[in-house]
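TA notes. Do not distribute before section.
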Amino acid sequence: MVTYDTKTENGVPYSSALYLRNFEYQTVVDDLDGLVVTKHAIMKGEGSVTSYTIGSRSLSRQTLSASEVLKLWDKLWAKKKQLEGYSSRKAVGVVLRDW
């Protein structure tokens, strides 16, 4: 059961905890989408340049290794499943019945 603890400017009640949970979920999904792009770039061999210098200007960027991408992927995937409410229970056995 959802308890509404806040109202919008038009007087419509909503749950701030549910709003924050949905915002966190969307952030995790967006990060996962970004990791998919990063993973594809690493698989293609792109992204090996980490800094550029042109004249007096310089630009540096951080690149992730394949192992770091996979670790971050697993962490974000677990967080997504937690926010969706899935548990990591495992089926131990099945009992067949003949009625």
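Switch to the second chain here.
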Amino acid sequence: MTQLLRNREKKAPLRDRKPPPALESIETGRQIRRRRLWKIAGTAFNLAILLLSVVILVRTFATVNYWELRAAIQATSSHQIALAFLFCATSYLSLTGYDAIALRHLGLRVPYPTTALASFASFSIAFTLGFPLITAGTVRYWIYSQAGLSAAKVASLTVVASVTFWLGMVLIIGASFVARPAAIAEVDHLQAWINFLIGLGAVGALLAYLVWVARGHRRMRIQGLKLELPGLGLTLSQIVLGLADLCSAAAVLYFLLPSDHGTDFLSFAATYVLACLLGIASNVPGGIGAFEATMLNSVPAPSPEALLASLLLFRVVYYLVPFLLALALLGAHEGMRHWTSLREAMNHGTDED
């Protein structure tokens, strides 16, 4: 009997045989070491960006005349401020579409006021405090769970909304690098033809993604979460929304710049997106430091004080004001929810009497 079992084991196909436990542990050890190396490399990259940003900011602030900075802030016209708030509202309105598209893709029905509140509050808080997976995810779950969504559905919604953001970024980088390679060369200090190739690569990657989702290859797995990405129609809507959001956000800062900056909007939008990418890579809340350093080193201005004044006003208009408004709306939402529960309880008690 023992000899018969041994013969069957010898005749078994190689694909059916399990690797020895020692080989499994070695492979696991290799994967762990690879993950550790990638983590160390990512941390080193983040620290390098942060250190470079600090150096640029320290050098800039060392030469800043604070009286001239104050004068530059006061010189900003009410017309500039009004345009900045208008495009800020347009950007955050586009962001509510991120959640609306994700909900439609997931086949979930949530009233638009609830969607708008969850999107606006989660994005504005995440933009200011950073750590979007924690801050934005917590706010979204708090609001959407009251509408009956599970944690898995909220996680899927967050991933789809993030894809919308990145699709818009890729399109802006591709279009601007192809259309303005020489102007972008003054920012990234690369040859114009290299920037042109980068733009073609970004556009090609976006087209390849569209073909990929159009052919139905949309299933993916992210940290144990199984997700199906939107199809071609919704993906095109994602691109339009991402483009509208990022262009509106860039316009906030663009119209706060001094009138004689001499930068066309398409080149500026590419610079803005690159600054956002470095801010995200620095892993600092709001990308503060890395974003400002990139702009100070890239955008022409009559003086450092004039550009720094525009950046400070941008932080107030696009980050601080929406953040405070989101906190107020969340407080009002929670107060109304508790008041409704109390009123229902009182009505129920009256009915029983």
